[in-house]
Amino acid sequence: MHRRHLLKTLLAVAFGAPLMAVAAPAIIPAPIIDVYKSASCGCCTAWVEHLQKNGFTVRAHNVANPPAYRAKFGIPEQLGSCHTGMVDGYALEGHVPARDIKRLLAQRPKAVGLAVPGMPQGSPGMEAPHSDQYDVVLVQRDGRHSVYQHYNGSTK
Predict the structure, then answer these.
(1) 12 domain-assigned
(2) What are the pLDDT digits (tens) for 43-58?
(3) CA–CA dist 65, 63 (Å, integer)
């Protein structure tokens, strides 16, 4: 017997506790994010790197018409940006911070997904000396949306 197992067994017997097998916690891999972007888009590549640095596995797909994926996944045109992602059934439009994606996946709301309209300075992939105020919005299935997270912006 392994020394540790023997010690647990002896302690359990000595104190009258029933012997139980303890299973190791399962390691659940982070969901894969598929990103549909233009091959020439530098800020899209920087956003992919942001996701990877925050523990996501990313499959980047260079496509001829990125806006077609926005429409396909149910993000309204007025919430558009330069790339669209898909993770675990949720659409991600634009420069959505990884922490908001993690929150979305933990909460699992009944929604299409998250969007950061436009390309705000200071959002992930759009780092700059000045950060704009911007909102991450939760997009509902009927196209309505509400603020999911607000970022105030700053000057570095």
Answers:
(1) no
(2) 999 999 999 999 999 9
(3) 6
Burial class (CB in 10 A: 0-12, 13-18, 19+), 67: middle
**Structure confidence by residue, pLDDT tens digits, 93-113:** 999 999 999 999 999 999 999
The CATH number for 103's domain is: 3.40.30.10
Provide the pLDDT confidence category of residue 25 given band limits of 50, 70 and 90: low
Range of the structural domain that residue 64 is part of: 26-155
In a domain, 8, yes or no: no
pLDDT given for residue 153 in this prediction: 79
User: Does the residue 82 lie in any domain?
Assistant: yes
Mean pLDDT, all residues of the chain: 87
SS3 of the chain: CCHHHHHHHHHHHHCCCCCCCCCCCCCCCCCEEEEEECCCCHHHHHHHHHHHHCCCEEEEEECCCHHHHHHHCCCCHHHCCCCEEEECCEEEEECCCHHHHHHHHHHCCCCCEEEECCCCCCCCCCCCCEECCEEEEEECCCCCEEEEEEECCEEC
